[in-house]
Write a structure and sequence with these properties.
The complex is a heterodimer. Chain A is an all-alpha fold. Helices cover about 70% and strands about 0% of the residues of chain A. The mean pLDDT of chain A is about 90. In chain B, the strands form 2 sheets. In chain B, strands 1-2 form a two-stranded antiparallel sheet. The chains are: A mainly alpha, B mainly alpha.
Chain lengths: ~300, ~650
């Protein structure tokens, strides 16, 4: 019981250190000092304390959507088993619900963006929806490979399905890492620090949000990064390392540590790589598709 | 209980006959109350069927040539009868708003009553011959309704297209019954017919027409939009379900179930789902979008039926249960959602905005209630939690996962492929629903008509919340819904599962799956609760803060207007440009090139390749063949008399030579 609760709390808190690590690593490579540890937290709190400005074009849906967005992601929190044991809601087929909760978050974001009638937000929304068409089957393909290898369709079994198979694990990690970049709207797919609307995806969609709504969307994006990178780390860490009664606790701690390492990786990547040209992003997403396909075909041959 | 069914039928006959005769102000109310009473009578009639093992059976004696009609209602028919009786009522209640004006109104009400009646009779009749007669009445009454739709020019060609498609379908059904072994002219007696693969394929094809599966869907995007709104709602959410019913009946007969047949059904289903949703992304008529989405949903239902068949072949009770449950669950969800979507689109059309989403926009401020109910149902139609759609997706995936354990390597590959295609369908559905709602309802108005659109009465859109709440309850309590449906599933399992250990395993499987669904309720309830919690927090945070209004940010430009908004085609372009090679594309003019383009003008039109290429070519071929015989119909009376003479002489010769 305590394990489950701490798992939830950890997932809810992790977005702040993750954001901080990314900023700090970027600062390190640029030979700057970087923000203090609590800066991402302060940013969110500051937004929550603000009032809000709404576009005259928008209606009730625009005001509802940020809350729905965050609610979908908060629900996904009780599905991701960071300790490698069952979570509050672990059941056969939970990965489908996870994918659909991410899709629900996406829908609310797009619907909110289109409410404003802004061409920039329409552009971002259109890109977001189109990339998902290739990313979602890729995720299901990888999930299918894991189910085939593990024999059951819940996250707990799936994440350790590739244990002891280095090639398959590498493929899964590569595919999930692209998903982290895509879902978290990070470079090379999207640049959270950009100031040019034409090149944005996620940032374009939140141009007109302000105050608590913006806080929910910003926190939601970081939470999404944490959720998907937790899955990535769970795939990497083999189950056999964590036996005994302290096993789940150790695994929980190492997953949290792993998520921080992923954040450092993202920061490094952002320091050394430019954002892709928008026409090349679909190819990058298709890379996820093909990596997952290779993993799936290998599993079909092996099992 | 037969008397209640007779009572219900007579109420609908009464509706069809009496409503055209009363003054026009009373028509809608009278029709709705008769339909409501008929639904109540149906419910009383089939209640014992659900409760116990009872089946309703009876015989109606007609004279020559109809003979004896056998009435038989067991659980499967009862399930669909409840859908037909209740789920269409919101559309029936709104019918008064959508019946085209003046002259055609009487005939319209008559055929509408006839359509409802024939749908119910088709479910009640057990004897195939009478079933076909009623099926024909259903096709004809809906054909007349399409012809009397309110959309000008288009309706004639649409009506003709529909007429031809339905009759090709009837030909398949009739041939299918002809090939049945002797003595199997009743649904309930079809089981165990062995030498009847031909009739299986023919019957399934005939029903696939009604459901609009690829490649038999070409009539759907023509007929649904052309009909009046309440008729399209009924056709899409109820009439297409009769195809599902027919398909399940054919599968129920059991003798045909083989691995090949199962894969054919799964393939047809998943291909219809993917292509239906892809075509919906390229359309801009809101009712056409809804029609193609209807095709997608029926494709998913068919895939569920196919998975059930595959499970039956492999004696895999888990796979069977989940596939069947997914199909039935999706049937309920789709019947709920399409009524709302078509009616909401109809209310927008009636506000003078038309059906082209490129000329809508800004309706979320001008018609807030319709907009909100459309948004909720679009959300549900994209199969997103907390509504019911996501449950059927999860059940489908569970069915495939269960199948992996018993499938051959080839079948495993096939199942994983279906899984990926299903995920793709889901993602494209998200694209099409955000596009439809976002372009049609949000942003600034894209036309003068949209600018001046006003909302109708509160009850009109208020009525549409009922199915939406139904969808929400289905998402929150899937286990309860499936407990209600379980008698139907037991019947089907009893008829199709091979008589071995798997039938004994059925109740265990049922319990295991229900407990999975119960644990699924938790995260879905959490989602719903979270939304309310966050909205509360948001309200508390914003309560004492300053809230302002401003224009949308447009990079420093102070007066954004509708012309700089993203259009429907630009919204879907990143996706459509990838799939364009498989679409039928007409293109005129050159796109812009170079740094200082001088002239530019480009017209681009993407369309459904099946409709344009395959069906179009078949049409040209058929009319080419028949035009060779056009000399027979010369218009000369003398020539026609000559035909008679030739015939008589031929008969005379035949009699003289043979006899």
């Amino acid at each position: 019981m305590e394990l489950l609760l701490i798992q939830v709390v950890l997932l809810l808190v992790l977005p702040f250190p993750v954001l901080w690590i990314i900023l700090r690593v970027k600062a390190f490579w640029a030979a700057r000092r970087g923000p203090c540890f609590f800066q991402p937290f302060h940013d969110i709190v500051r937004l929550c304390k603000k009032g809000a400005v709404f576009s005259k074009t928008t209606s009730l849906a625009f005001r509802l959507m940020p809350s729905v967005h965050l609610a979908a992601l908060l629900t996904a929190v009780i599905l991701v088993p960071m300790s490698g044991r069952g979570h509050i809601a672990s059941f056969e087929g939970d990965f489908v619900l996870f994918a659909y909760l991410l899709a629900a978050a996406r829908f609310s974001m797009i619907a909110g963006a289109l409410e404003t009638g802004s061409p920039f937000e329409g552009m971002g929304a259109s890109r977001e929806a189109a990339f998902a068409v290739f990313a979602e089957p890729a995720f299901f393909m990888l999930a299918g490979a894991m189910v085939l290898a593990g024999g059951k369709a819940d996250f707990v079994t799936m994440v350790s399905a590739f244990d002891g198979r280095a090639v398959l694990t590498t493929l899964a990690v590569l595919s999930l890492f692209i998903m982290v970049l895509l879902e978290g709207a990070r470079i090379p797919v999207d640049d959270p620090a950009t100031h040019l609307e034409l090149t944005m995806i996620h940032e374009a969609m939140i141009l007109d949000h302000s105050g608590p709504d913006l806080a929910m969307l910003q926190y939601g994006a970081a939470l999404k990064t944490v959720l998907v990178s937790s899955l990535l780390v769970l795939v990497v860490l083999p189950e056999q390392l964590f036996t005994g009664s302290a096993g789940p606790w150790l695994r929980l701690a190492s997953t949290a540590g792993g998520v921080c390492i992923v954040a450092a990786l993202i920061g490094t990547l952002e320091s050394f790589m430019a954002r892709l040209r928008m026409t090349h992003v679909p190819q990058f997403v298709l890379l996820m598709f093909s990596v997952s396909l290779v993993a799936l075909v290998s599993v079909l041959l092996l099992f | 209980m037969t008397e209640w069914l007779v009572c219900s039928s007579f109420l609908l006959v009464g509706a069809a006959v009496s409503v055209p005769m009363v003054p026009s102000v009373l028509r809608a109310k009278l029709f709705f109350s008769l339909a409501l009473f008929s639904a109540i009578a149906d419910s009383i009639a089939v209640a014992p069927v659900f409760a116990g093992d009872a089946t309703i059976s009876g015989q109606i004696f007609f004279g020559w040539p109809l003979g004896v009609a056998v009435v038989g209602v067991e659980r499967l028919s009862a399930f669909f009868l409840m859908i037909v009786a209740w789920f269409g009522l919101p559309a029936v209640a709104l019918a008064g708003r959508f019946v085209p004006g003046s002259s055609g109104a009487r005939a319209h009400w008559f055929f509408f009553g006839l359509l409802l009646l024939s749908m119910k009779l088709a479910l009640v009749l057990d004897s195939l011959l009478h079933f076909l007669v009623v099926w024909e009445v259903m096709s004809l009454s809906s054909f007349f309704l399409v012809l009397m739709g309110n959309s000008g020019q288009q309706r004639r060609s649409a009506g003709l297209h529909y007429f031809v498609a339905m009759h090709v379908s009837v030909v398949f059904l009739m041939l299918g019954t002809v090939f049945l072994p002797e003595g199997h002219m009743r649904f309930s007696m079809m089981s165990g017919a062995e030498s009847a693969l031909a009739s299986f394929v023919l019957l399934m094809t005939g029903f696939a027409f009604k459901m609009g599966l690829v490649p038999f869907h070409s009539w759907i995007p023509e007929a649904y939009p052309a009909a009046a709104t309440h008729v399209s709602a009924i056709m899409s959410s109820l009439m297409s379900k009769l195809g599902v019913y027919g398909m399940l009946r054919t599968v129920l007969s059991g003798g045909f179930i083989t691995e090949t047949a199962a894969w054919l059904v799964i393939g047809a289903g998943i291909l219809s789902a993917v292509s239906g949703i892809t075509f919906s992304v390229i359309r801009r008529d809101i009712k056409e979008i809804l029609s193609y989405s209807s095709m997608e949903n029926l494709g998913i239902i068919t895939a569920g039926i196919g998975l059930m068949m595959l499970g039956s072949v492999q004696s895999n009770a888990f796979m069977m249960w989940a596939g069947l449950a997914a199909a039935l669950f999706k049937t309920l969800c789709h019947s709920f959602s399409k009524v709302v979507l078509f009616s909401a689109a109809g209310l927008v059309e009636r506000a003078g905005v038309g059906r082209d989403i490129e000329s809508m926009g800004g309706l979320s401020r001008r018609m807030p209630r319709v907009s909100l109910v459309f948004l909720g149902t679009a959300w549900a139609s994209a199969s997103l939690p907390p509504f019911g759609g996501v449950i059927s997706e999860i059940l489908l995936v569970l069915s495939m996962v269960a199948g992996l354990s018993t499938a051959s390597p080839l079948a495993t590959t096939g199942l994983v492929l279906v899984l990926v295609l299903l995920a793709m369908t889901g993602a494209i559905a998200l694209l099409t629903w955000t596009r439809t709602w976002g372009i049609a309802f949000s942003g600034e108005p894209r036309s003068l008509a949209a600018q001046s659109a006003r909302e109708g009465r509160v009850w009109e859109s208020g009525l549409l919340w009922v199915p939406l709440i139904g969808l929400l309850l289905m998402g929150l309590f899937p286990a309860l819904v499936l407990e209600w449906v379980s008698p139907v599933m037991d019947t089907i399992a009893g008829a199709t599962l091979f008589p071995d250990a798997s039938l004994a395993a059925w109740p265990l499987v049922h319990r295991a799956m229900i407990s999975t669904l119960v644990s699924l309720s938790l995260p879905i309830a959490v989602f719903g609760g979270m939304v309310f919690l966050l909205l509360l927090v948001r309200w508390l945070l914003l309560r004492k803060r300053e809230q302002g209004e401003a224009t949308t940010w447009s990079c420093g430009w102070g007066t954004p207007d509708s012309r700089i908004q993203y259009t429907a085609s630009s919204f879907s372009d990143p996706f459509v440009s990838v799939v364009r090679p498989v679409l039928h594309t007409e293109r005129e003019g050159e796109s812009v090139s170079g740094y200082f383009p001088e002239t530019a003008g480009c017209h681009h039109h993407d369309d459904d390749p099946f409709r344009k290429k395959i069906i179009g070519r078949i049409g040209v071929f058929v009319s080419g063949v028949f035009s060779r015989f056009s000399w027979i119909q010369s218009g000369n009376m003398q020539q026609y008399i000559l035909y008679g003479l030739v015939w008589l002489v031929a008969m005379l010769v035949w009699i003289l030579v043979v006899a």
